[in-house]
Design goal:
The protein is an alpha/beta fold. The protein has 12 helices and 17 strands. The strands form 4 sheets. Strands 1, 2, 3, 4, 5, 6 and 17 form a 7-stranded mixed β-sheet that branches. A 5-stranded parallel β-sheet has the order 8-15-9-10-11, with helices on one face. The chain has a 3-stranded antiparallel β-sheet with strand order 12-13-14, with no helix packed on it. Helix 5 packs parallel to helix 9. The longest helix has 17 residues.
Length: 441
Amino acid sequence: MNLDIAGIGIGPFNLSIAALLAKTPEIKHKFFDDKLEFAWHPGLLLPEADMQTGFLKDLVTAVDPTSPYSFLSYLVAKKRFYRFTSTELNMISRAEFSDYMSWASKQLTSLQFNSPVELIEYHNGLFHITTKNETTQAKHLCLGTGKKPYIPAGFKPFLGENSFHASEMMQRKIDLTGKKVLVVGGGQTGADIVLNTLNGVWGQPSNLDWVSRRANFQPLDEASFTNEFFTPEYTKGFYDLPAENKQREIRAQKLSSDGITQKCLLTIFQIMYQRFEVQGEQRWLSLFPNRSAEQLSFDGDGYQMSCFNALNNNQEIYQADIIIFATGFMNSLPDYLQPIMHLLNLDENGEMQLGRDFQVSWQHQQTNNIYAVNSGLKSHGIAEPQLSLMAWRSATIINHLASSAIFDIEDSNGFINWGTTQQNSLVENSQIPEFRLKEIS
């Protein structure tokens, strides 16, 4: 049996599509992943690490609130609905959201784990997906294999037991007791690692330096009007902007999606105050913003990290026994696309170009669509890599795939006039009455 669509990778985004497709059995679909079961960055499921997205922005609720795969359905199934409501939580832990998605994955029969995709070929109007178990044919694809941990090229030769990416934290047997530790990266992950180190999760280090190239350890912008960036209305308007304007807006909005939660920053500050000021503990945690890590060496006894201080233009050396790179993730085209890579219309940076409905530009898109999730930062804006619009994007892809409005994805106009084409035309075409002063008799 040929599939209508095959999903490659089962992370949150493709899991959302699978959950929504469950109500459309007429669309034949299957999703493949190399993992033995669902796992969402297990190495980053740190204690006290919270989500930056509200729990109602789950796999399905925004477009299908009665779905059996919602977070509320999960709470009911787990017999914890009443206790959860009593917590008054606005943001849940990453661990609980991960458990919710794992629970949802176990309800879906379209997911095929332990099936690493080795090759995707295209001929006779069909994609041929070869896994270690079988070859499956599908008319359309949805790529969702995620991003790879990013390590600056010059530091990769030093990776090993004591120098590693933060995504491995909870999958390693880490003991920081008595060690000099360097955390590189001033985003949420770096902050979560520092907070858990303060709480003694991996033992008591002798010294912890936290280095960031940002100007300070800056909070996530969680204001109500900032959250309007994470709406379908803004995302659709963003798609139509000139390329240079998109780049400018993405840079300006960085802290809307890539800052540290106020709760985390405040907790770190309060712990430091109590331990180092009130209790008089010798200060072993130091924060170094405005530092860019440039060179790394190892002399047998430990690491030496050379950083540039952008405030005073000096070079500084940091000593460490253990280095943890909280340096984020990067896009990377998977190897299994090699047989069809020459058919993709990549941009000047070798990245996929997406249409309005998240379809990849390629030579046969008139008959066969390749959809991609978590690949549209440049085209759709800062909400694209986030969970906020996950369900809306999934429904958009399904509607496009089916050429019909299976899901209602329209929303009311927000409180901000972004100056989109539609809004401008309304202003231009409106009849503005002409007012004249009455003559005074």
